[in-house]
Amino acid sequence: MSLKLKIRLSVFLLLLLLLGLGGYAFFTINYLENGAHGIEQHDFNVARSTVLLFLVAGTAVGVLMMVRLPRIVVRPLRRLTVDVEKVAGPGPATRVGVGRRDEVGSVATAVNRVLSQAQTDRRATLAELFTERNRMDSLVRSLDEGLLLLDEHQTIILANPVACDLLGLRQAELEGKPAAAVAAINEPLRELLAPLAAHNLAGDDVPDPVFTFPHKGDAPHYQLSISPIEMGTGEAGKTVPGGHIFCLRNVSDFKKLDEVKSSFLATISHELKTPLASIKLSLMLLQNDRTDAAQRQKLAAGIGEETQRLLNMVGQLIDVARLDAGAGIKLDVQKMKLAEVIGYATQTVHPQLADKQLQLDIQVPEGLPEVQGDVEKTTWVLINLLSNAIRYSPTAAPLVVRVLPWGEMVRVSVEDCGPGIPAEYHKRIFQRFAGVPGRTAKGNSSGLGLSISREFIAAQGGTLWVESQPERGSRFFFTLPVVA
């Protein structure tokens, strides 16, 4: 039964009693006015009892309604309030109990629908949050940079695997621990926290410090950048500090590149100084009146050779500058015979061959098809490969230049008996300024020849590569397309 119906029935019953009492009194008064000259004692007692009965019944119903009606109305509301508070609290309750099919029950049902929808939305929101959290966690853990996150109380709240590996600690030994406490027993972390105390943050004028971690092997270099975290806004629109992010970036390759460039500058300085000193000495001898004509011719030829050497070196630098600037390579593509190109190249390096008494073996088959390419660039590549082979070949060793058809290409190889190249350096030697550690030879190399050679061959539609093993010599190959 609904509350509305209960209230109506209670009021109706009270009204019925009041109407009965009033009606009885009305009829009694009307009876007396219409001729009743006396009332017997019995009738009087009955009338008084009836009035008293109506009064008692009306009073009882009134008192009952005063006591019960508020309880009938308030009790389910209180029960509903308690259930809603249980649902809103931290307990396991998730629904409001529906005890009756009245107005309060309807309210409870509506509240349950609202709670059900809220729980559905909450589950969807939590699923999205977990998805984003897992995505961010995977992203942080897959970084190849070390990452440490400190909150405003200098507590480590995040450390990715790279940072744990660099510090030599497990994740459980870092996360949730005060940074100062961990730094007291871990020297690498203590060194990382020093720039924070000096307020050396990312974006300032002070260079970011670089640290080495010897336990990682080859002492890799990591550059530290510290960025502050801003957590919303405080009073008057001011940002509230929320901690710091420590990012360790592996800059070992850049360090190696700096070392290689420094070595290149030293080498190129030596390479430029040697011919210039030779030219200066030759000029001084030419200016001497006691130098005879034959010796003057010899000195002039030496000056020409040294000058050509300087021009070749400057030409390499210009080619590298053009490639870095994206200017590309200008080719004069035409039909050419590789036998003639090999003749030009071997004639150029003939003095070097004679100086080391190398035995040059040229193998070019009959009926070799013509190839399509740039004669000057291809000759330059072959001269570079022959010069490298001569530089690293022992005295009186054989040197083979072999040409073979290679499908729709023609393959040219230069084979020497030098110290060979380990497999891990087969790709590196084609990078600029690169070389093989521990390899020594007469004269220094700028480290540009093979890089430029690969660019020249690739621009002509071919490929340049190496096959080599330590102590078993090297074979450099390049291909060029056959004329269609």
Q: Could you explain how this protein is built, in words?
A:
- By secondary structure, the protein is of the alpha+beta class.
- Helix content is 53%, strand content 16%.
- The chain has 11 helices and 12 strands.
- It has helices at residues 3-33, 41-88, 103-142, 161-167, 179-183, 187-197, 252-286, 293-324, 338-356, 375-392, 449-459; strands at 146-150, 156-159, 210-212, 221-233, 239-250, 333-336, 359-363, 371-374, 398-406, 409-415, 464-468, 474-481.
- It has a 5-stranded antiparallel β-sheet with strand order 2-1-5-4-3, with helices on both faces. The chain has a 5-stranded mixed β-sheet with strand order 7-9-10-12-11.
- A hairpin with a 5-residue loop joins strand 1 (146-150) and strand 2 (156-159).
- The longest helix has 48 residues, at 41-88.
- The chain is rod-shaped, with a radius of gyration of 50 Å.
- The mean pLDDT is 80.
Q: What integer value in Å does the Rg equal?
A: 50 Å
Question: How would you write the strand order of the largest sheet?
Answer: 2-1-5-4-3
- Total count of strands: 12
Strand content: 15-25%
Termini separation comes to 101 Å
Q: Kindly state the mean pLDDT as a whole number?
A: 80
Blueprint (SSEs and pairs):
Blueprint: H1 3-33, H2 41-88, H3 103-142, E1 146-150, E2 156-159, H4 161-167, H5 179-183, H6 187-197, E3 210-212, E4 221-233, E5 239-250, H7 252-286, H8 293-324, E6 333-336, H9 338-356, E7 359-363, E8 371-374, H10 375-392, E9 398-406, E10 409-415, H11 449-459, E11 464-468, E12 474-481
Parallel strand pairs: 7-9
Antiparallel strand pairs: 1-2, 1-5, 3-4, 4-5, 6-8, 9-10, 10-12, 11-12
